[in-house]
C-alpha cells in the first residue's frame, strides 16, 4: 500500500508552541507525532509514504533526512530520491517522499491532489493526519475498504463533537457543524441514518485521484460530498472504542502526553 501523512498545517491552535516547532515534530511520549505516524502506516503495510509539508518545511525535511531515532531501524541505511527534498533514508522499511506546498497550505484535498504524482496510483492509499494518535487497526480498515470497493472509507467514532458526518446504509450523505448551524448535503439520507465524528484516518481507492476536479486549497470533504451526490460510495468504518487522540490544541496535547507518557 501507499501511505500519506497530512503534515502541512500551520498548527495555529497550538501557538505559541508551533511558532518555532512544526506540529509534526511535537513529541508525545518521547517520540514525534511524525515518527509515530510513519511507524503506524509502515506497520500496516505501507512501503511508500508521502508526507506533505509547508509550515517549517525545512525543519521536517531535515528531521527525515536524519533518519529514524530507533537504533538499528530496518532499512535505515537505504535511501531513495524524494521530490524537492533530496535523498531520504528509509523509515521502518518504507520509502519516504516529501510533497512541499509553497505559497499556502492546500488543506487535505488540495494536498492530496498535489501529491498524486508521488503516489503509485495502483493500490490502496492509507491517509493519516499527523496530529492524530490512535489504536485503530489500519490494516483491518484497509482490507475492509478493498472488500467493499468503495471510493473512500473513513474511520469514524461515535463521540461528542460539534462537527458530524451523516451516513445511511449507502454511505456518506452530508456533514453538520452544530457550532455554526452549517449543513452540507450530498443527498437526503434514508433510514436508518447515523452521525459520527471523523477521526482523520481514511483509506482511499487510487481512482479518486483522477476525480479531484477542485483546484487550489480545498478540504477533502468537498469532493467526497460532490462524488457522493453522483452515487459514489464513501463508507464509514466505525472505530468507536479504539484509543483516539486529536492533539491539535494545547489541552488535547496535554491529555495525550499524560496518557501516553513513556509510550
Runs in which pLDDT lies below 50 for 5 or more consecutive residues are: 71-85
CATH architecture: Alpha-Beta Complex
The number of distinct β-strands equals: 16
Overall pLDDT metric:
92
What is the CATH C-level name?
Alpha Beta
Question: What features would you describe in this structure?
Answer:
- Helix content is 24%, strand content 29%.
- The protein is an alpha/beta fold and 263 residues long.
- It has a single domain (2-259), classed as Alpha-Beta Complex (Spore Coat Polysaccharide Biosynthesis Protein SpsA, Chain A).
- The strands form four sheets. Strands 1, 4, 7, 8, 10, 11, 12, 13, 14 and 15 form a ten-stranded mixed beta sheet that branches. Strands 2-3 form a two-stranded antiparallel sheet.
- A hairpin with a 3-residue loop joins strand 5 and strand 6 (86-89).
Brief account:
The chain is an alpha/beta fold. The chain contains 7 helices and 16 strands. A hairpin with a 4-residue loop joins strand 12 and strand 13.
Task: From the structure above, extract its key features.
two-stranded antiparallel sheet; Spore Coat Polysaccharide Biosynthesis Protein SpsA, Chain A; alpha/beta; ten-stranded mixed sheet; 263 residues
Topology:
Elements lengths: L1 E5 L10 H4 L6 E2 L2 E2 H11 L4 E6 L3 H10 L12 E4 L3 E4 L5 E6 L6 H9 L9 E5 L2 E3 L3 H11 L3 E6 L5 E5 L4 E6 L4 E4 L8 E11 L16 H8 L5 E5 L5 E3 L3 H10 L4
Parallel strand pairs: 1-4, 1-8, 4-7, 10-15
Antiparallel strand pairs: 2-3, 5-6, 8-14, 9-16, 10-14, 11-12, 11-14, 12-13
